[in-house]
């Protein structure tokens, strides 16, 4: 029994070079996609992302796990838990997607203890005029609770996301006594509710 070979058309002069060039391009594209996929996995895995980020130049990690980098030093005293701050900020999730910013609205004003734990801790490290870039683990941010746009219902911050902020401390001043009492009462109620929810989940 004879085997018929399928005739292969001879390659024109220069085609071999173009063929290898094409293979090289495809390999480079594949490597690029693999790298993007790896970066996406690292961004999706908070522990890996923060471990890598901790090795970057200028990044400091506190005992709580808050990571920050001083972009510009400030001067003078630092705010405390009983202060109200005025802050310029931009919040992002890894990959660079902005989920909130004060740009175009002027500095945001709020109590130091009126924000997520990592943000509150970072504010108390800063001086007037300072600009920091901070990274919050899910435990210091919104945890397993995804955050949705109240108008569209779209997920703005995924569950268990690392949060990245650039923030500039413009000013701060003590919270008036009557507002401080109200804030403390609200915090106690919130802590009680969280404790009850934690107990319910444990059951």
From TrEMBL:
Catalytic activity: [protein]-peptidylproline (omega=180) = [protein]-peptidylproline (omega=0)
PROSITE patterns in UniProt: FKBP_PPIASE
Sequence ranges assigned to domain PPIase FKBP-type in this UniProt record: 82-173
Isomerase listed as a keyword: yes
Pfam families: FKBP_C (PF00254), FKBP_N (PF01346)
GO biological process: protein folding
Broad enzyme group: isomerase
Keyword Oxidoreductase annotated: no
Keywords annotated in UniProt: Isomerase, Rotamase
InterPro entries: PPIase_dom_sf, PPIase_FKBP_dom, PPIase_FKBP_N
Molecular functions (GO terms): peptidyl-prolyl cis-trans isomerase activity
Transmembrane region(s): none
Domain of life: Bacteria
EC numbers, comma separated: 5.2.1.8
Family that this chain belongs to: Belongs to the FKBP-type PPIase family.
Identification of the protein by name: Peptidyl-prolyl cis-trans isomerase
């Amino acid at each position: 029994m004879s085997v018929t070979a399928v005739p292969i058309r001879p390659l024109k002069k220069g085609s071999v070079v173009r063929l290898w060039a094409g293979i090289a391009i495809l390999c480079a594209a594949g490597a690029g996609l693999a790298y993007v996929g790896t970066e996406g996995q690292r961004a999706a895995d908070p522990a890996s992302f923060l471990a890598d980020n901790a090795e970057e130049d200028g990044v400091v990690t506190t005992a709580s796990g808050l990571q920050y980098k001083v972009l510009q030093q400030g001067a003078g005293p630092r705010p405390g838990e009983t202060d109200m701050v005025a802050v310029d900020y931009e919040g992002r999730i890894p990959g660079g997607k902005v989920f909130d910013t004060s740009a175009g609205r002027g500095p945001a004003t709020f109590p130091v203890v009126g924000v997520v734990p990592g943000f509150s801790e970072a504010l108390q490290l800063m001086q007037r005029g300072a600009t920091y870039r901070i990274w919050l683990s899910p435990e210091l941010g919104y945890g397993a609770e995804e955050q949705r746009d109240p108008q569209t219902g779209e997920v703005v911050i995924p569950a268990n996301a690392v949060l990245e902020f650039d923030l500039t401390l413009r000013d701060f001043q003590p919270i008036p006594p009557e507002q401080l009492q109200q804030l403390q009462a609200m915090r106690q109620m919130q802590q009680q509710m969280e404790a009850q929810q934690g107990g319910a989940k444990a059951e």
